[in-house]
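> tool_call: predict_assembly(chains=two)
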Amino acid sequence: MTDNATSSTTATIGSAFERRTVAAAGFDVTVFEAGDGVPLVCLPGAGGPRFSPALDLLAQRFRVLLIELPGWGDQPNDTAAGFDDLAAQVAAVIDALGLTSYHLLGTSLGGACALHLALAHPERVISLTLEAPAKFRADSVDPSTLAPEAFVRAFRTHPERGMPIEPPDPEFIQRVWPLVGRLMGDGAYDEAFAARLATLPTRTLVLFGRNDGVISPVNGPTYKRLLPNSTLLYVHDAAHDIQNDRPEAFADVVGDFVTRGMNFLINETDGLINP
Amino acid sequence: MKLEFFQTFAYQGPDHGRTWPAPPQACDPGWTAATYAGGLDECAAAVDAGFDALTFAEHHYSPKQITPNPVLLAAVAGQRFGSTDIGVFGSDLPINNPVRIAEEYAMLDNLLGGRLRVAMLRGTPNEYFTYFDNPWEARERVEEGTLLIKACWAEPEPFGWEGRYYRFRNIAVWPKVCQQPHGPRILFSANSADGAVFAGTHGLDIGFSYMEPERCAAHVALYREAAAATGWEPTADNIQYRHALWVDESEERAWATFGRYAEGGLFALFAGASDDTRMALGKVGMAMAGLGRGVPDTSGLALREPGAPPPPPMTVGPPFVGTPDRVLAQMRSVAEVVGAGRIEVHAGFPVTAAIPTADTLAMLALVGRELAPVVHAESW
């Protein structure tokens, strides 16, 4: 399969997902769900839930649940002072979904939240995948400050693929960005949090697009250094939004990690040409 | 201006005709040993003559250059000539494992104490018959492989790579490169426009092989433009020009010697291959230019759309042949037109047979007396 031939057209991306609302932690939270099998809970970035050809592909193998983070819907989130609070709210949503254990995928801001969630509930998180996580942000930029062309370039090496990319609606920024700012803080290296990561036993895959113009991939090694059971993987020819830039590659590597854990380091592809 | 000596290690044994691949049964280990020994003697003469660097390249299955692994020769030469810069120009990256290449160069960089520069090249069309690699993928593989190698040298923690053509789940190169923080300077071929743009975009040096200087200059402009777009400005030291060299006391003798071994030129190297094989080689060449399988053709001056007419074939510039004064004038001209700060030469163009080591040693002595000192003294 080539990168140029994504499995779905723009019109059909995400069409397999069913929307429902879950009441938890004082919020009515929207959850999008597709597929069967082991649950893969997905926490989106600051832009809110977005479908991608990658999630469509993963939903062919797993039960994918894309959760709108509390505060990104119609109700403001005035109670989350930081990621620990947001993670507790998300944990309540996952409880309400009836999931006792699950694989967790967090994207950008959702990756930071996923880290806090895994720290709080390591016994429930079977594996953790962090796509361009926003917890450490050396050499990174606030995408809300970017001009439209720079915004697209920061997120996508291939804007022609996957979901259309455009800067967010100013009304959305005005409504959500105060919460984003509160959660993210100044991005300075947090020694106390770094020490907490050293205690996380969960097997973790950290993904960065090599062309990421939002969260610089120079932050990747920090996670590898701090997380004792982690592996760092760069996706070539992809920017911040790996799921839409290189959907097959993303689904392939995440699916392999979810299925095989650290055994995904072993190449089990048959090399026999002919018997 | 810097002068660099490209040692090709042409097999010194009896002529084996112009075919590729050459049958291994014709290779005599005694002549092989003599070739390597004589080639290193020529390197010593080049160092004595004042060349600034010794360079080596990867070629396969042929007596014309018995250097399938140039890293080995670079290591030997680097140890023997302890103050001379070493260049491997270069590895045929698309037919190799890039992580292995990164590891070997990291070792070599340490063995040479940081005197190493390298090139990541696509190689000549015949090399795609070497390990049964797909030539249509050559351009994208050399670009992705080069970025992967840069990552191998720079990343502080173990990492994986999910590429378009390369997948590695676990990379941690030891030893680290000696030249910190980025590793050896990487040269990229700018014989194609897309190569020039890629090199400018990613902070690489560029090199031209045999191409006429005026066309090189157009590619240099693209290189500079791409570099400026990413915030840096190449100097002449970032630009290299490669061609054959033969100097003698008289113009006639220089051309007579050069012509005796170079009869038929570049394409005559494969004159003895069957018509079908040469047709296949031509198809590989088209593939590497991005033609013939729906791949956008970017080998011309402008990045063009699929279906656009093919670029003009590469026009070969004149070799550096003649008296020292004439070659000096020619080098000045190339430096001015191309903007090159490095001229890389190999002794003659041995197609019909290898040039005897004694002849090359004499030629290099003349270069040392009358050419190299002037080249070094002048700032072109």
